[in-house]
Amino acid sequence: MIPVLPHSLPDDVPAFWNRSTTSAVLIDDAPDIRWLVRRALERTGDFVVLGEAGDGQSGVELVMDHAPDVVLLDLDMPGMGGLEALGLIRAHQPAAQVVMLTGVTSSAQLDAALDAGALGVIRKGSSLSGILAQLRQLLDPRPGLEIALEGVV
């Protein structure tokens, strides 16, 4: 049986759920992390990765050029760090949902990211399946869809 979906979604549903895929940009100075997360996102069929950047400045430019639905952003990067990049992304692409994907454990830095407009924080120590589950939960926080999340702030 094929489920029947309404022709239009309610107004309170985020715009990115109106499409079959969610567009994403990855900003992290670790190429291996970008590679793993990109492959994991793309294998779900739910995400299309529009691009990757290894530093904050390049990442902000990529976000401004492509206007993705979601940005996965590291906090600790050389040059422009994640907090500065987050501020610029929020100022110029306010519709983009920014999720911090980081190994940073400082509660002050994590709180600063949330205060600056990050949707949430996912720790890099999580498994790839855990990262995907946490990301889905952050992007679709409707009641009844709760899942056990380890490492999500």
TrEMBL record:
Keywords: DNA-binding, Phosphoprotein, Transcription, Transcription regulation
A molecular function GO annotation: DNA binding
UniProt modified residues of type 4-aspartylphosphate: D74
One BP annotation, GO: phosphorelay signal transduction system
Start and end residues of each Response regulatory domain: 23-139
UniProt keyword annotation of Signal present: no
Source organism, top-level taxon: Bacteria
Keyword DNA-binding: yes
Membrane spanning residue stretches: none
Gene3D superfamilies hit by this protein: 3.40.50.2300
Name of a matching Pfam family: Response_reg
PANTHER family hit by this protein: NITRATE_NITRITE RESPONSE REGULATOR PROTEIN NARP, TWO-COMPONENT RESPONSE REGULATOR
Protein name: Response regulator transcription factor
Source organism: Nocardioides anomalus
